[in-house]
Design a protein that fits this description.
- The chain is of the alpha+beta class and 230 residues long.
- It has seven helices and nine strands.
- The protein is 59% helix and 17% strand.
- Helix 4 crosses helix 5 and helix 5 packs antiparallel against helix 6.
- Belongs to the adaptor complexes small subunit family.
- It is found in: Cytoplasmic vesicle, Clathrin-coated vesicle membrane; Golgi apparatus.
């Protein structure tokens, strides 16, 4: 017994999840989704949960605002398929905690993870709820560890870039000051005083602004790049 596809459908006819275990073209998939949606939504509340479509048998069940739909061969047992669908709902309910449609919309990747742990090529591979939750929990821990590593690495790179920019600012400031010391300009009274050009004045103000921002901890990456470009 093998399930051909599983579709999660809202009451408005929107697909919230679709998993295909057979190779079909995008056109055929769209045709199946359209036809099955029309058939299921047109059914009455007390109608049978099984219906025939082409060469398959469609098994569906409504949970709150979602229809869980699975298709199998005509010779397969519908009750077993219905039990697999119910086991999938129980697994999601355990993971999300009273699962609802919004949980699947905003965290759909976990719904796919749970389904992949339950079914392999349309066949039931794991019936234990504890084993499925343990594997999903391990995946969550790994993702959290990778996220923390990326955040710490990004902070280290930001600190290194700020240190590099600080060295550039100091070097340019010293260069400007050294140029003034080597080339004094006498004023009209004959006194030798430093006469800065407008570019040197602008750089001094920019350097002062940068180090003041560093002290306040408000230096941004864009501001650092602007410093390097001047």
């Amino acid at each position: 017994m093998a399930i051909k596809y599983i579709i999660l459908l809202s009451r408005q006819g929107k697909v919230r999840l679709a998993k295909w275990f057979t190779t079909l073209s995008p056109k055929d998939k769209a045709k199946i989704v359209k036809d099955v949606t029309q058939l299921v939504l047109a059914r009455r509340t007390r109608s049978c949960n099984f219906l025939e479509y082409r060469d398959t048998k469609v098994v569906y069940r409504r949970y709150a605002s979602l229809f869980f739909i699975a298709a199998t061969d005509n010779t397969d047992n519908e009750l077993i398929t219905l039990e697999i669908v119910h086991r999938y709902v129980e697994q999601m309910d355990k993971y999300y905690g009273n699962v609802c449609e919004l949980d699947i919309i905003f965290n759909f990747q976990k719904a796919y993870f749970i389904l992949d742990e339950l079914l392999l090529a349309g066949e039931m591979q794991e019936s234990s709820k504890k084993n499925v939750l343990r594997v999903i929990g391990a995946q969550d821990s790994l993702e959290e560890m990778e996220s923390r590593t990326m955040q710490s690495r990004g902070s280290a790179e930001c600190i290194a870039s700020c240190s590099c920019v600080s060295r550039i600012v100091v070097r340019r400031t010293i260069a400007h000051e050294h140029a003034d010391a080597c080339h004094p300009h006498p004023d009209k009274h004959g006194d030798e005083r430093r006469a800065r050009n407008p570019a040197q004045e602008r750089w001094s103000s920019v350097a002062a602004e940068y180090f003041e921002a560093r002290l306040r901890g408000k230096t941004s990456v864009l501001f650092s790049f602007a410093i390097c470009g001047r």
